[in-house]
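Changelog note: in this version the structure field was regenerated for every chain. One regenerated record is shown below for reference.
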Amino acid sequence: MIRVLVVDDDYHVAQAHALSVARIEGFTVVGEAHTASEAAELVTSQQPDLLLLDMYLPDFSGLELVRRLAVSDGHVPDFLLVTAARDIESVRTAMQLGAFYYLVKPFSFAALREQLEAYRTWTERLGREGEADQQVVDTLFSLRGTSPRRAAATRALQPTMARVLEIVTTAKGPIGASEVAEVLGASRPTAQRYLASLVSKQLLDLDLSYGSTGRPEHRYLPRRR
């Protein structure tokens, strides 16, 4: 379960965000903070995995909070900015400090869910890797956040196709249609059709590996940006 601390100066907005997070599978809210100082205290006591972080706070900014946490001797959570700040310098600084993503208010529940699900997939994949060759690095970077094009395309998928995409995305490496079919509980041709469609939608990449017979085997992996 991914532990989330919601940080927003507006009590009503913080509560709304907390309720939204609680609706998403795999996430739990461990607290709400309305100042940066309160957030720092809760980071120490609650050890959240992720901050859902507003930029504008009454004592100091969300980005300053991230800076202070980074140089502290304590717990340093990941953070996803949810803010009305639209200036490019804020976006640039957030990226430099390692923001998982940057959501500009107002945003929909679907947009928040998309990014939290991307974070969940990223952490699951990160936790399974023992070492990082270039393919692992490429995959992990491709999973950080969800681009607008990918987000819109993913939301439009019917449930079974979305499940196939999730199976490939969370796999430890390139995966074949037979393996997908086994996890999906469907036939190999059915899985193959969904995989081919996801490749055509540019949501998956096709990897051709040649075995001892010399014939290429179709395997699939998350789309590299």
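Spot check on this record: The chain has ten helices and eight strands. Strands lie at 2-7, 27-33, 50-53, 78-83, 102-104, 175-176, 204-210, 216-222.
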